[in-house]
Write a structure and sequence with these properties.
With 174 residues, this protein is of the alpha/beta class. The chain is built from five helices and six strands.
């Protein structure tokens, strides 16, 4: 609220990117049973200034990975609560919380083929979530103008990628 009168350019860019998306996919780690501060800050910025909530009416999916035994179950529930407060309709199912292992992601940041083969159930759940997200976003597809992804966030902790059709796109990494 301190910046509402002189909203920062990076915040306006975030708001435009969220507004350009038909649906959002949040991918979060878990810190102390909650979401990373950078993700909460991004959601707060996107909902400001008062009366211009860029998240209002959006559809979303939530997934996550963490090395803990119960993965990101607590963080995802907390994120669902935060998103409800800014008027985002979050898919209730399927829930996807993946326990992270070193062999899941290659040096280029891509999910490895051996992990997909080893965890076919997780791959099937992810496909089901993306299908469901595309279905609930379908009435909104094409209503927004796609824009180029931001490339200059200072710490690379938050990246928004509009991709595919519909434009599903918020990924938070920490």
């Amino acid at each position: 609220q301190d910046d509402d009168a002189d909203f920062p350019a990076a915040g306006l860019r975030l708001k435009r990117q969220v507004e350009a998306c038909d649906a959002l996919l949040f991918v979060t780690p878990e810190y102390n049973r909650s979401i990373p501060g950078v993700l909460k800050n991004a959601i707060d910025i996107g909902s400001r200034p008062g009366g211009s909530n860029s998240f209002a009416g959006k559809r979303a999916g939530v997934i996550g990975t963490s090395p803990g035994a119960h993965s990101t179950v607590s963080a995802q529930q907390h994120l669902r609560n935060v998103l409800a407060a800014v008027d985002v309709a979050v898919l209730p199912q399927p829930e996807i919380a993946i326990q992270y292992r070193e062999d899941q992601i290659d040096a280029d940041g891509k999910v490895t083929a051996q992990w997909v083969k080893a965890d076919k159930k997780a791959d099937d759940r992810l496909a089901a979530l993306l299908t469901a997200l595309a279905k609930i976003a379908e009435p909104f597809t094409g209503l927004h103008q796609p824009i180029a992804p931001a490339t200059d966030f200072d710490d690379d902790l938050l990246t928004i990628y509009p991709f595919g059709d519909p434009h599903i796109g918020m990924q938070a990494w920490a």
